[in-house]
Design a protein that fits this description.
The chain is an alpha+beta fold and about 140 residues long. It has a domain of about 90 residues. The protein has four helices and four strands, in the order ββαβαβαα. The strands form two sheets. A two-stranded antiparallel ribbon has the order 1-2. The chain has a two-stranded parallel sheet with strand order 3-4. The longest helix is centred in the C-terminal third of the chain and has 20 residues.
C-alpha cells in the first residue's frame, strides 16, 4: 500500500556511490521524475567529490530505459549496466541498502508512534545517520 508523504511523494529513489557507500535519497511524486532527479544528483555528486560518474547500474525499471536517459548517459560517457531481473544477488548492495532503509524507517515510525505519512522524513533521518556512521567499506 502506497502512503503519500506530507509533501505528496509516493516513491523514493536511492543513488549509492559504490566506493564510499554514500547514499542520496530523493523523493518522487511520479516515477517519471527519475531522470531529472538523476541529473540533479549527478551534478551534486560531481560538485561534492570532483569526480565523474563512470557507471550507472540499475534494474530494468522503465524509468531508466527512456531514450532521453540513454542519450544523456552516452553524451556524458556514463556506462549503463542493467542487472538481471529477479536476481537480487546481482544488485546486492542496493537491495541490502533499500531493505535497511525500509526496515529502519518502519522501526522509527512504529517506535515513536508516528503516523505513516511521515515516512519520507523518517527515511531522510535514516540516510543522514547511515551516511555518517563508519562502515567496512571505508
Amino acid at each position: 500500500m502506497l502512503v503519500q508523504s506530507i509533501s505528496g511523494h509516493l516513491y523514493y529513489i536511492t543513488f549509492i556511490d559504490n566506493l564510499s557507500r554514500k547514499t542520496w535519497i530523493c523523493y518522487l511524486k511520479h516515477k517519471d521524475e527519475a531522470f531529472e532527479t538523476f541529473k540533479e544528483v549527478k551534478a551534486l555528486h560531481q560538485n561534492q567529490t570532483r569526480k565523474k560518474i563512470k557507471i550507472f547500474r540499475s534494474d530494468n525499471g522503465g524509468e531508466y530505459m527512456s531514450n532521453e536517459f540513454i542519450d544523456f548517459c552516452k553524451k556524458d560517457s556514463i556506462k549503463k549496466e542493467k542487472v538481471v531481473p529477479y536476481a537480487p544477488k546481482e544488485n546486492d548492495l542496493v537491495e541490502r541498502k533499500n531493505g535497511s532503509i525500509a526496515k529502519s524507517t518502519l522501526e522509527i515510525l512504529h517506535d515513536q508512534k508516528f503516523p505513516k505519512f511521515v515516512w519520507a522524513e523518517a527515511s531522510h533521518v535514516v540516510i543522514y545517520v547511515q551516511n555518517r556512521v563508519p562502515h567496512q567499506a571505508l
